[in-house]
Amino acid sequence: MSKVFAEDSVGIVTPQIAHFSEPLALACGRAIAEYDLVYETYGTLNASASNAVLICHALSGHHHAAGYHSETDRKPGWWDSCIGPGKPIDTRRFFVVSLNNLGGCNGSTGPSSIDPDTGQPFGAQFPVLTVEDWVHSQALLADHLGIPVWAAVVGGSLGGMQALQWALTYPERVRHCVAIASAPKLSAQNIAFNEVARQAILSDPEFHGGNFQAEGVIPKRGLMLARMVGHITYLSDDSMGEKFGRGLKSEKLNYDFHSVEFQVESYLRYQGEEFSGRFDANTYLLMTKALDYFDPAAAYGDDLAKTFENVKANFCIMSFTTDWRFSPARSRELVNALMAARKNVCYLEIDAPQGHDAFLIPVPRYLQGFSSYMNRIEI
């Protein structure tokens, strides 16, 4: 008997692959000779190709943003709460494209892919990437799909940075930019967290200078620690307190350094274990460096308003009150700069206890505001 999906689900979706044989020049001075981008689409592209929406993923995201790959899937895509019939990104109106970025580890060409020149995984030889590199590759994907202009480019966290970069790099190709829980650049504290995570990976004896695949191993402990550090920053103190408090795994303390005694310890170890089994260590390094490097105002004397002078998109900026990694103050920086540049911008600050991860959670006020903005987009 076939599985019956909810009316607001996009149902079964099939990933697709776009192959690009022309070299892609990168900000680091190197180039990728040829590459694949894996993507999914939801909804139908209209005759004028005016209803296309690009979804940009965050650090550990991928192309599977909505729906299911099979009837046996237990969980839908990572942003299923926001994509589908009647949801904020309504697939009855929009043709939605979600991809796995270049350098990823979910089907797009990345460090774990085979280098055609050597027949071995790229590993440490894969070039460093920037947000702007991703946007250039995404523009080529848009060309491949016959989409001259995006109705909207949407993303949260690192995905929001890509949406902002789209408006800057291709001002004629973006009508609306939606940046959620994002920032114009990372703070020193954020860069510090990323460096601790990278050092956890780099110092793992199984990393082998990034060529661990050739050794038949993975730097599991390093990946686990990196994820544990990252996960702490994605949650608020309130949400962790409410979810775990000082709850114990058993009735008494063991008084040693090796036991998992507190519920929060168990949770973090589970998250690290699960992550280390599905994510590539070199991709993690690439993604965090791309976060660190993002600073479009650097080319304009750190004048953010001047940075946005030539953009043509309308902007929707959203933040969450308990997000301390990408705080509302950072979103307000964007809003103030856009206003100073005399651009159309709306801002919604959502009271939510979940911290940075709130952009992935169906908080009613968030969904309401998100839907309200998307519904005003003319197609």
TrEMBL record:
Belongs to the AB hydrolase superfamily. MetX family. HAMAP family: MetX_acyltransf. It holds the Pfam family Abhydrolase_1. Transmembrane segments: none annotated. Pathway: Amino-acid biosynthesis; L-methionine biosynthesis via de novo pathway; O-succinyl-L-homoserine from L-homoserine: step 1/1. The gene is metXS. It catalyses: L-homoserine + succinyl-CoA = O-succinyl-L-homoserine + CoA. Substrate binds at R227, D357. The active site is at S157, D323, H356. Keywords: Acyltransferase, Amino-acid biosynthesis, Cytoplasm, Methionine biosynthesis, Transferase. Transfers a succinyl group from succinyl-CoA to L-homoserine, forming succinyl-L-homoserine. It is an enzyme of class 2 (transferase). The keyword Calcium does not apply. This is Homoserine O-succinyltransferase. Its main location: cytoplasm. GO terms for molecular function: homoserine O-acetyltransferase activity. It comes from Pseudomonas typographi. It comes from the Bacteria. It is found in: Cytoplasm. Residues 51-310 form the AB hydrolase-1 domain. Homodimer. The record marks R325 as: Important for acyl-CoA specificity.
